[in-house]
Specification:
The chain is of the alpha/beta class. The strands form 3 sheets. It has an 8-stranded parallel sheet. α3 packs antiparallel against α17 and α6 runs parallel beside α17. β5, α7 and β6 form a beta-alpha-beta unit. It binds glyoxylic acid.
């Protein structure tokens, strides 16, 4: 009996390192999200996880991936699977770009530095947000990988021009102009909590902080969180806690229009990506304006509640402009199979933001590595299961909408 028992009993080796232990228990990005929820103060988790108003669009973004199913092929020799493609004329090992996310240091003290390093290790572009908590130069100093710079357009164009110059001087490859943020969407979780950036320590946040001592300890030990790209500027350097709505609605230019693309062209020599395109008509307009790529995106459902899921736009946009402009798609990428679906419909690559932030909150830089590995392995496995050994074989015939609707 003892022999039988010994042959079936297998204890996992006790992992001494707390981060490794935590990550080893996770099997999906959703697991990391649950860990992040446990570790972060409620206001911080809700800022990352939340979306606009009733969060309908955020829910539909992820639901769209579930509504699209595969039509797998068999007996296609998938002994060797190649996930590599090209993007903006350069090789890319996996159709994935790390999306810009503001204030990454609220998830982990290393913030954007951790994400940039993890992206560089995986040879994937990392997009630094204008509203980052590490500066253009600090990120450049830790990553020689592909770096893109996301631009919000301040009313003060001199400031924007300076940032473009700083990005060019430090080797950023492309700019990503976010065009879905003329005004800020109403994120009601943030409204309810009175969430500010940097997070302020009031009585409720003190209680919340005490319940999340790991986060609070590292938050208090690290340098104060600030809008790193504009520190010391009169435009609002983020040293006083401010709600994102107040900040954006006072600092950013709601008059931004198609005419401004030419202004960007005259101040930026590299590729331009327009992020936040949400219709075939605007995709055509972007192609006419000559941008190199568009990101079909509704800002993860954080802006206009009721906007269409990006995945539903991929095929019609690819049909309209796919030969003139590269198409990126975001909005709920949590698995490699999501990437395969978007690429099959006509996207060149996907972007993801929340997925890596959950990883960052759950396990710091190693959590970001975990998410990238998970998406890479998921992409490879899904390609094997649908019978595609090369990204070029990911075509619309491999997928169909379950509800039979033509999109
Ligand atoms: C910032 O861009 C945000 O969506 O919170």
């Amino acid at each position: 009996m003892l022999r039988t028992l010994r042959s079936v009993l297998r204890f996992r080796r006790l992992e001494r390192d707390a981060v490794a232990r935590r990550l080893s228990r996770a099997a999906s990005v959703e697991d990391l999200r649950r860990i992040a929820r446990r570790r972060l103060p409620g206001g911080v988790f809700d800022y990352i996880d939340g979306a606009a108003e009733d969060e309908l669009t955020a829910g539909r973004n992820t639901a769209a991936f579930r509504t699209l199913e595969f039509r797998p092929r068999v007996l296609r020799d998938v002994a060797e699977i190649r996930t590599d493609t090209t993007l903006l004329g350069r090789p890319l090992p996996l159709p994935l770009v790390l999306a810009p996310t503001g204030f990454s240091r609220i998830a982990d003290p290393q913030g954007e530095l951790a994400v940039a390093r993890a992206a560089a290790r995986a040879d994937l572009p990392y997009t630094l947000s204008t509203l980052s908590t590490r500066s253009i130069e600090e990120v450049a100093a830790v990553s020689t990988g592909r770096r893109w710079f996301q631009v919000y357009v301040w009313r003060d164009r001199g400031l924007v021009r300076e940032m473009l110059e700083r990005a060019a001087a430090t080797g950023y490859e492309a700019i990503v102009i976010t065009v879905d943020t003329a005004v800020l969407g109403r994120r009601e979780r943030d409204v309810r909590r009175g969430f500010t950036l940097p997070p302020k320590l009031g009585l409720d946040t003190l209680i919340d902080g005490a319940l999340h001592p790991g986060w609070t300890w590292s938050f208090l030990r690290a340098d104060p969180i600030a809008f790193a790209n504009v520190v010391g500027r009169s435009v609002g350097d983020g040293s006083d806690p401010v709600s994102l709505a107040d900040y954006i609605n006072t600092q950013f230019d709601p008059a931004l229009s198609w005419d401004d693309i030419a202004w960007f062209r005259s101040h930026w020599d590299g590729p331009i990506v327009l992020k936040g395109v949400q219709s075939v008509a605007d995709a055509r307009r972007a192609a006419d304006a000559g941008v190199e790529a568009i990101a079909l995106s509704n800002h993860g459902g954080r802006q206009l509640d009721g906007a269409p899921p990006p995945l539903e736009l991929v095929a019609p946009v690819a049909e309209a402009v796919g030969d003139r402009v590269e198409i990126l798609c975001d909005g709920g990428i949590r698995r490699g199979s999501d990437i395969v679906k978007a690429v099959a419909l006509g996207a060149r690559a996907c972007m993801t933001g929340r997925a890596y932030l959950y990883g960052l909150a759950a396990g710091g830089e190693r959590g970001v590595d975990w998410v990238i590995d998970h998406l890479r392995e998921g992409t490879r496995r899904t390609m094997g299961l649908v019978g595609a050994s090369d990204v070029a074989e990911l075509t619309p015939e491999l997928v169909r909408w379950r509800d039979g609707e033509r999109r």
